[in-house]
Specification:
This protein is α/β, with parallel strands linked by helices. Helix content is 42%, strand content 15%. The chain has an eight-stranded parallel β-sheet. The chain has a three-stranded antiparallel β-sheet with strand order 7-11-10, with helices on one face.
Length: 315
């Protein structure tokens, strides 16, 4: 992965093939800037931003770094055409899309000279993404935090299957918070990685301090995939999580589930720091994250650990 011809480094113009995931309520301009300035690729997460806030974060990012950065846009966003107009007007060069059909916007973005990457959780959607003309794919195993694939395929199984099915550059995501994990997915066929949970707990993350502390205090088994009847999402266990499980067990309708979710549950938990009533989206790998550190230190540590692991394997 540190080879000079690495396709991910070349595609984005970065030094280290590590992408910081565009996470709701955590991935603002400060985090994206810090990761990009340290040699990786920072992403602004549009999923929790109104259009004017999104534009502001892009402008602040442009002012704070001369390095490449990108945005992540969930394609289920209600004002998608407005966001896409902002991306084009502001001259954003790299767009990661997720949670939707890559065929809808890839062509229009490519016409503007924008590099497009789509996040998938299955071989089927990886193939569809390549057919839609994306430049690369992120294959995300179900260890990952937040919204997840219905197939519940783990990263270890997903990456080699996707690698065999597509020819474009492949990034691995889900359960990656160490250099050992980067080396492992490289062996499976990935050319780079996307890291979420580790950066959610970064100093520059816009997540609430309570949420960051909850991440670093978490243990194995503290997260679980839930809300499968609506859209699967991995959550940290708290009062809200147990309310959701209880509703599912009594056979609550989709309407009741939507009402329980209400509006801004993720904002309440991750951004405002309500650890009981809020939705806390984080990956299984949170159990490995033990302190809140600057993003550059996280990236540096990941890469040094990767190089050390590779050296051991090559003896």
């Amino acid at each position: 992965m540190n080879h000079a011809e690495n396709r991910v480094k070349k595609l984005f113009g970065i030094d280290i093939p590590v992408i910081q995931a565009g996470m709701v309520w955590c991935s603002g301009w400060r985090l994206a800037t810090a990761v990009s300035n340290a040699g990786g690729l920072g992403l602004i997460g549009a999923g929790s931003m109104y259009p004017d806030v999104f534009r502001e974060h892009i402008q602040k990012c442009k002012a704070a770094t001369s390095r490449p950065f990108g945005v992540n846009v969930p394609l289920l966003y209600p004002e998608m055409s407005v966001l896409m107009d902002i991306i084009i007007q502001e001259g954003v060069k790299i767009v990661f899309t997720s949670a939707g059909n890559p065929g809808l916007w890839t062509g229009k973005l490519k016409e503007q000279g924008i590099t497009v990457v789509h996040v998938v959780s299955s071989v089927k959607f990886a193939k569809k993404s390549e057919q839609a003309g994306v430049d690369a794919v992120v294959a995300e195993g179900f260890e990952a935090g937040g919204h997840n694939g219905r197939e519940e395929t783990t990263t270890l199984v997903l990456i080699p299957m996707v690698r065999d099915a597509i020819s474009i550059p492949l990034l691995a995501a889900g359960g990656i918070a160490s250099g050992r994990a980067i080396a492992a997915v490289e062996a499976l066929g990935a050319e780079g990685v996307q890291v979420g949970s580790a950066f959610a707990a970064a100093v520059e993350s816009s997540g609430h301090e309570n949420f960051k502390q909850r991440i670093v205090n978490s243990s194995e088994g503290d997260t679980q995939l839930t809300m499968k009847q609506l859209t699967p999402v991995r959550l940290m266990k708290n009062k809200f999580f147990h309310d959701v499980i209880a509703a599912e067990q009594r056979g609550a309708s989709n309407e009741e589930m939507m009402k329980l979710l209400g509006r801004a549950r993720a904002k309440k938990g991750m951004f405002e720091g309500d650890l009981e009533e809020g939705e806390l989206e984080i990956g299984q790998v949170s159990a490995m994250i033990k302190k809140i550190r600057p993003a550059a230190e996280i990236l540096n540590h990941l890469w040094q650990d990767y190089l050390t692991t590779k050296a051991k394997l090559c003896r």
